[in-house]
Amino acid sequence: MKSGRILWDELALHYQRGVDWTRATRKEWNAVAGAIDPERHAEVAKKLAIQERDAIWWRDAVLLYFQTFSKRPFPAGVSKPAKPLEEYKAKSLAW
Prior knowledge:
Blueprint: H1 7-31, H2 38-70, H3 85-90
Helix pairs in contact: 1-2
């Protein structure tokens, strides 16, 4: 890869950056709470919470799946999934 990392590390870090971005965005949004009407702020905050939950779910599910092929550990800086791959496979995507 251009970064000098192997494909597995680049993939894992890409998904982690997505989670990190949603967390940072939620923090920034919470910091402007007093500058935005409460109803609008709460509505966006709720959507950002859903986005963070989904980013974590996809990171964990995708990385666990591809780890079955890569046979490599998660690189430094990537959070370990909370559940095994079987639990993600069993989850219906019809939320």
